[in-house]
Amino acid sequence: MPEGKFCNKMPVNTEEELKALLGDTGGKQYYEEMKRLDVDKDKLWTTIQNTCKSRIRTWLEICAHCGMCADSCFLYLINDCDPEQVPAYKIQSTLGEIIRRKGDVDNAFMRKTMEVAWAKCTCCNRCGMYCPHGIDMGIMFGYLRGLLYGQGFVPWELKIGAGMHRVYRAQMDVTQEDWVETCEWMAEEWEEDYPGLTIPVDKPDADIMYTCNAREVKHYPEDLAEAAVLFHLAGENWTVPSEGWEETSLCMFAGDWEACKMQVLHVYDAMDRLKPKRMVGTECGHAHRATVIEGPYWAGREDGQPPVECLHYVEWVAEALREGKLKIDPAKRIKEPVTLQDSCNYIRNQGLKEVTREIMSYMVEPGCFVEMNPNGEHNYCCGGGGGFNGIGLFRPQRNKALITKRDQILNTGAKLVIAPCHNCWDAIRDLEEEYKIGIRWSFLKPLLIDMVIVPDHLKPKD
């Protein structure tokens, strides 16, 4: 069967198509159709010839099969050191095999490869730190996901996610009107406690253009309000764009590279239109990677940089605390054992370890901050990155993957975990629901709101 009603090689481009796919609860029909989906071998090999450049081909050739990547992979360790979980094996037996066969692979091979690409790798790239040749497995798995997406072999939830970006330019069905109304609503709700609070929309030449995650708008808009309060207390000249406010990219998880470009250009267009001095993105690791690290290349920017300087939220918080724009009430600092989850996407891939520790020095009473082991750029993935959190088909594998982070947290003795990243926050929430180890978890914003000193001139009048 060349194409199914839901499972096919065509991206979701309309709201009607999106609603139809959402109506297939759990992807039941989708996955049945996938079992009969033909592989367009000519297209697959042509795509590889046109896009698989010397870097990836060199990495595949120079892999020495030394096994040094094995112990670096939390999925290998948590699965009883299964040889098929060795990173080098995973990529050589999938992408390497497709290239060796010149695209001559069948349906069963592609379905098995889909499981490897989304259930046996989170693209955390910890293995790349230990490879003696510097092979970047995350890049190769990202490329493999793109090949699979182009052939229709992509998890149901991620085809929906990529479709959301194509239809709404957001990972959820949040329209421009929904977004602006939410900004107005949150400002009104919180203005009584913080007189003069606004969420400026489309203010040109601001010092900061703030972007966020559509999940915040859809499910917990108080996160947007908390960001507004902290900008307000810090005296920032800031704005949000009416269009181009969504920083995330589920299409990156899906391997829909065309949608990745569409999404990031939407954000860059807002920068060009409003001309802010800087962009600050919310507490989300993959959003930062998609917009700031990978995005310039998808957008074809020759300098490899976004149109304006871009900061992850932890960078802005550290700066605001360092410069005294935000001041912490010492009596309200965290006075219990607390640990910190290091996000792969801005710690390992951008080196912001010291910035996050600087924040801890302001927020946590001396002696109460407990590091995970390992930590920083050596920390393990939360267990749900790279789209793993949201794929129902692979939920048993994901739940097992959470054990590594569970044990790391238990070993700290901390009951509070600070997780300035959406995927990490979700994974830690889920591991508590699954394993009930008695922990709490939080973004930075609500903790800061509780401990920051409100200047007298910004306090409500009695």
UniProtKB/TrEMBL annotation:
Q: Which residues form the Cysteine-rich domain?
A: 338-424
- Family matches, as Pfam families: CCG (PF02754), Fer4_17 (PF13534)
Which InterPro entries does the UniProt record give? Answer: 4Fe4S_Fe_S_CS (IPR017900), Cys_rich_dom (IPR004017), Helical_ferredxn (IPR009051), HmcF (IPR054810)
One GO term in the molecular function aspect is:
4 iron, 4 sulfur cluster binding
Q: Does the keyword Metal-binding apply?
A: yes
User: Could you tell me which PROSITE patterns the record lists for this protein?
Assistant: 4FE4S_FER_1
State the UniProt keywords alphabetically: 4Fe-4S, Electron transport, Iron, Iron-sulfur, Metal-binding, Transport
Q: What is this protein called?
A: Cysteine-rich domain-containing protein
What organism, scientifically named, is this protein from? Desulfosarcina widdelii
